[in-house]
Task: structure prediction
Amino acid sequence: MRAAIYARYSSNNQREASIEDQVRICKAYIAREQWSLEKVYSDAAISGATTLRPGYQKLLEAARNGALDLVVAESLDRLSRDQEDIAALYKQLTFSGVALVTLADGKVNELHVGLKGTMNALYLKDLADKTRRGLEGRVRQGRSGGGNAFGYDVVHETGPDGQITRGNRRINGAEAQTVVAIFESFVRGKSPRAIAYGLNAEGVPGPGGRQWSDTTIRGHHARRTGILRNELYVGRLVWNRQRYIKDPRTGKRLARPNPESEWVIHEVPALRIVDQELWQKVQSRLGSIREKPGVQKARSTRFWENRRPRHILTGLTKCAICESDFVSIGRDYLACSAARRKGTCDNKRSIRRSVLEELIVNALKRNLMAPELVKVFITEYHAELNRLNREQEQAITNKSKSLGTVARKIDGLYDAIADGLRTAGLKAKLEQLEDEKATLEAEIASSKTPAPRLHPNLAELYRRKVAELHENLRDPSTRSEAIELLRGLINEVVLYPTDTGFEIELVGEIAKMIALPGGSGSAKSNLNECSVKVVAGVGFEPTTFRL
Result:
């Protein structure tokens, strides 16, 4: 029996040696059972409340691929603490013919899944309640409820009992000056983006040592996030503004705002950085911006509730200079996020998304029409067609044999009746066989004659299918599937700015499908330069595609 071990520890009162201990006792169990250990899968410092764990996902993939017969773990909660996830795991392993064994319970069955899953779910809920109760107590003492804000240092002090007191903070002088400068610049009329540009140009490190962006400064109105909305700067500690709920579809935690009646507010005057007058001026300007007609009109559409369409290159396009993502600007343009939002990249040029997508799709279409690829398609098409035809012919042959067997049985019953045999079951048996014979005859008669082994116009069929690539991307009924197929071929698209436009590098399986003259044949292949020009009022338009 081929066995795999899964081990995990969370960051809650555990350590890396926990995985070693789990693996050690699981190996001993496998040795006693005389099974064959194939591989060990593990996840360190990751909660069991989520399935988005690299080791866990690799274990499932191995099970689906038929590489395992058994999964061994110390206990069921090492695999997951979520009741629904445990049931789903058991269902997937059972479908793949893989047994689940734990040292605590032996071979896991439906009863274990129900009882243990419920116990683990209750444990998580109880742990969450206790954690929240502890955090609330710390906040009411004026200490941090988790995380830290820019402008402060975390202080660990040793109490009279020798225990380390956590959650205390003190003002960081240098960062506090930056906070005041941001508030004053905003009051003078500077936009959050302009402030971010200036701070990055001066080399001032942002929160966590990262670069500044406009959203870091502006934040979110409803969630009270961002430098300009952080009430800690006026000595007011606010906790429990939001809660996190796991999305059952993705397993990711999503923030949900809590009503203000549930907020916990504690005054901490010793942590005030911004005076009240400056704070009020900033909040007044934020409010006036929010009440502008243009902003009100945009908010009235509730645009955030509309799911943005997924494009071929969503999340795949990178800037070659700073490695930042190319993001949407305006309606149909892509540009470097670091250049537009932080001012830390010199790549200011933008490109139409439609132009870039058209370029890639056209390159793929053109190269798929190469004679050698058409030949491969014809060969594979014939092989698949012949396989289907053989299966259909074999099915007809099997039904014909069954029909012959049924006919002989019927003839035997007729002979028995002719010889004077009369029983109650004989008539029923005869009727059953006659029904079976009629069904087989109908199925054989309705079976289609296998198609010819060679398709006379297959090359033209292939050309037509390739030509339909654009139509499939435009047709709402096939667009999603076509996009996902293309995205599966692309790891990333890197844009190098040139004097005339962009040089584009495709990385992924698609690079192997787009054979370029003089290419190196490596995993990364460059598209020849695509020249683009600025057209007033329109933007970048393609002038040449030298592929």
Residues 515-547 have pLDDT under 50 and may be disordered. The radius of gyration is 34 Å.
